[in-house]
Amino acid sequence: MGLSWPVEFGGRGLPATFEAIFNDEIGAAGAPPAPHVGFLGRALLYHGSEGQQLRFLPPLLSGGEVWCQGFSEPGAGSDLAALSTRAALEGDHYVVNGQKV
Predict the structure, then answer these.
(1) DSSP conformational letter for 77
(2) In this structure, which CATH number among 3.40.50.620, 1.10.540.10, 2.60.40.10, 3.20.20.210 belongs to the domain 1-69?
(3) Where are the domains of the chain?
(4) Of 13, 64, 94, 96, whose CB has the highest number of CB atoms within 10 Å?
(5) Cα–Cα distances in Å, from 42 out to 12, 45, 51?
């Protein structure tokens, strides 16, 4: 995992081709897939502050922390188009209004 991620965040700093080869080899071996760290991790990698990256990315890649994303809501299930939770900018921070299940 994290073969193409920067070394300072726990990766190997290799070209993305190595990640593709790694995933192909996992599939060829019949092994379980590697943990999915890219959705949230890549968002932090490209858009997070340096402090966020240093705090969250190393434990994500090492397996010290496991994250998930919650999409399900009452009345919407996992239909992303029907979600009603919203974040509104109030001053210099966001306030999230809604409910997750």
Answers:
(1) B
(2) 1.10.540.10
(3) 1-69, 73-101
(4) 13
(5) 15, 5, 15
21-41 burial code (b ≥16 CB/10 A, e <16): ebeeeeeeeeeeeeeebbebb
Report residue 77 as tokens. Answer: 């299930």
pLDDT of residue 79: 84
Higher per-residue confidence, 65 vs 78: 65
Q: Is the pLDDT of residue 69 over 80?
A: no
Asked if pLDDT for residue 72 goes beyond 90, the answer is no
Helix (H), strand (E) at residue 93: strand 93-97
